[in-house]
From TrEMBL:
It comes from Ruegeria haliotis. This is Spermidine/putrescine import ATP-binding protein PotA. The lineage of its organism: Bacteria, Pseudomonadati, Pseudomonadota, Alphaproteobacteria, Rhodobacterales. It catalyses: ATP + H2O + polyamine-[polyamine-binding protein]Side 1 = ADP + phosphate + polyamineSide 2 + [polyamine-binding protein]Side 1. Its EC number is 7.6.2.11. InterPro entries: AAA+_ATPase, ABC_SmlMolc_Importer, ABC_transporter-like_ATP-bd, ABC_transporter-like_CS, Mo/tungstate-bd_C_term_dom, NA-bd_OB-fold, P-loop_NTPase, PotA-like.
């Protein structure tokens, strides 16, 4: 990745009649990064991608690619290529001809086309399958052909619209790593749209999360997970327990809060949240909670509760714990090292938490 911005979106907006699908989108993407736009269905992420591709013109604002203003420049003249969810490969053409299609339209010499097609198919591990019919391929192979067809054009930026969503879970996970490796090897900027948080986190250098047409947070995956900037993002990414808390003291980087079940805690102020007030919300990830029969020692906050449900997920065990004075059961998850479920519904147990794992969520700025 370089320091250079390959894509710059400045105040980009898209209206369809009275409806605003994308509002005031400002974003700089670095050359060579894998960037994902993540958000729930209808949040405007595909529209944003289509404006970069040139399939849709912004109603306001500017799109720059490699420093050049893209206004009025059609999709096929932009240094971008797009890979679609539905593969969009031609069923009547064989693999080689599918990949060669864009190059032929540009009038490139046959010898160069042959060489570039061979190279592109090797990149996606389909070397030697030129002659295979497009209908004689598995879903994963078809998606690789679609990738090769885009890469053969040597775009500066590859745009990917939910590229793996038609694949089954196992294949999708395999392709996530393959695409990430390919992107790193080629050094091309990838911009992917997805509603799958795990996919975005596995593949991306940075993620931009959108809600209701607005870009709400842009961060690297670990920061997004550890310091979501509001409740919507905290609940969209991973699982989170939400608890009310009252700020009794504020000092520089820290807050002293009283909580309904874990008592008084000194927590870190979250620099990403919109500023707060006295009554805030805090978040605790289920895996950050200790769960034990005896009162856990050396924890900043502890509370007694009763196991309500146990869900065995294989790699971990998920408990819902009812605590007096807290409306919703608290979720705690434990890695399944020893293949045992230690606690059963109805068992009295203790929960423990460290202050450092508590996330200040400030006030909710967006409707849930
Ligand atoms: N051509 C169009 N005309 C009118 N409304 C549109 C058009 N394209 C998109 N929209 C609307 O704009 C909003 C954002 O759509 P968009 O496809 O960008 O969302 P998305 O986040 O990609 O959702 P999904 O994951 O379901 O594709 C939606 O409410 C959609 O109905």
């Amino acid at each position: 990745m370089t320091e250079k911005n390959i894509i710059q979106l400045q105040g980009v907006e898209k209206r369809f009649g009275n409806f605003t699908a994308v509002s005031d989108l400002n974003l700089d993407l670095r050359e060579g990064e894998f960037f994902s736009l993540l958000g729930p269905s209808g949040c405007g992420k595909t529209t944003a991608l289509r404006m970069i591709a040139g399939f849709q013109e912004p109603s306001a604002g500017k799109v720059f690619i490699d420093g050049e203003d893209m206004e009025g420049i059609p999709a096929n003249s932009r240094p971008t290529n797009m890979v679609f969810q539905s593969y969009a490969i031609f069923p009547h053409l064989n693999v080689g001809n599918n990949v060669a299609y864009g190059l032929r339209n540009r009038g490139i010499a046959k010898s160069e086309i042959d060489q570039r097609v061979t190279e592109a198919l090797e990149m996606v591990e389909l070397g030697g399958l030129q002659e295979r019919g497009a209908t004689e391929l598995s879903g994963g192979q078809r998606q690789r052909v679609a990738l090769a067809r885009a890469l053969v054009m040597r775009p500066k930026v590859l745009l990917l619209d939910e590229p793996l969503s038609a694949l089954d879970k196992k294949l999708r996970e395999q392709m996530q790593f393959e695409m990430r490796h390919l992107q790193q090897e080629l050094g091309i900027t990838f911009v992917m749209v997805t509603h799958d948080q795990y996919e975005a986190m596995t593949m991306s250098d940075r993620i931009g999360v959108m809600f209701d047409g607005r870009l709400v947070q842009v961060d690297e995956p670990p920061t997004l997970y550890a310091k979501p900037c509001n409740r919507n993002i905290a609940s969209f990414i991973g699982e989170m327990n939400f608890l009310p808390a009252h700020v009794t003291e504020e000092n520089g980087k820290g807050l002293t809060v009283t909580t309904p079940c874990f008592g008084i805690l000194d927590i870190e102020k979250n620099p990403n949240v919109a500023q707060t007030g006295r009554d805030i919300e805090i978040g605790i990830r289920p895996e950050q909670l200790e769960i034990s029969r005896e009162k856990p020692e050396d924890y900043d906050g502890t509370v007694q509760g009763k196991v309500r449900d146990v869900a065995f997920y294989g790699e971990n065990v998920h408990y819902h714990v009812q605590v007096d004075g807290v409306e919703k059961p608290i979720a705690a998850s434990v890695p399944n090292y020893f293949h045992t479920v230690d606690h059963r519904p109805g068992d009295p147990i203790w929960l423990g938490v460290q202050s450092t794992s508590i996330i200040d969520l400030g006030q909710n700025t967006i409707k849930s």
